[in-house]
């Protein structure tokens, strides 16, 4: 697969998230979208997103297209915006094949080094990182050999020093599912 395809699917996912929120706005959270005909069908598992000639779910785009086979790249976790306060911020520009590697590196480092990406507790010697790193830990371990090594490669400053020190524990931040429209 190509960077053109990877950029297309990242942009499609982000656009469909925005469309899904706007179709239901005002909502407090994407978790408010759920029940149809008495059955729970969450925001990410609703088959309602026309992309590339098929109606898909956001989960299919993410898990079956972007994170399977040749398109797999753990940095994509930081390119996908799920419209919550704890997710990576939406870029002001689309992803482009000719700059994708640079854009994904920037997005990964910007997220991980920002307030949604980590917090440090020096007294407790705990590095708290985004719950995204817990949910998709296997992807980051596959890319770097361990979660700690992935963090070392992408964090800066005191957070990088904490990640390098095996005496520091790695724990996970709570995830805020509140809609990110007021940030």
Summarize the structure.
The chain has about 180 residues and is α+β, with helices and mostly antiparallel strands. The chain has helices at about 5-25, 60-65, 100-110, 130-135, 135-145, 145-155, 155-165, and strands at about 35, 40, 50, 55, 120, 125-130, 170.
N-to-C terminal Cα separation, in Å? 35 Å
Mean pLDDT: 93
Summing up helix and strand content along with how strands pair, one would put the structural category as alpha+beta
Q: What percentage of the residues does DSSP assign to strands (E)? A: 5-15%
Computed Rg: 17 Å
Provide a count of the helices.
7
Query: Which regions have little confidence, pLDDT < 50, spanning 5+ residues?
Result: none
Strand order of the largest sheet: 5-6-7
What pattern of helices and strands is seen along the backbone? HEEEEHHEEHHHHE
Residue share in helix: 25-40%
The counted number of beta strands is 7
Report the major sheet. 3 strands, mixed
Shape: globular
Structure commentary:
It is a single chain. The chain is of the alpha+beta class and 183 residues long. It is built from seven helices and seven strands; from the N terminus they run αββββααββααααβ. It has helices at residues 3-24, 58-66, 100-112, 132-135, 137-144, 147-154, 157-164; strands at residues 35-36, 39-40, 49-51, 54-56, 118-121, 126-129, 169-172. The chain has a three-stranded mixed beta sheet. A two-stranded antiparallel ribbon has the order 1-2. A hairpin with a 2-residue loop joins strand 1 and strand 2 (39-40). The longest helix has 22 residues, at 3-24. It is globular, with a radius of gyration of 17 Å. The model has no long low-confidence stretch (mean pLDDT 93).
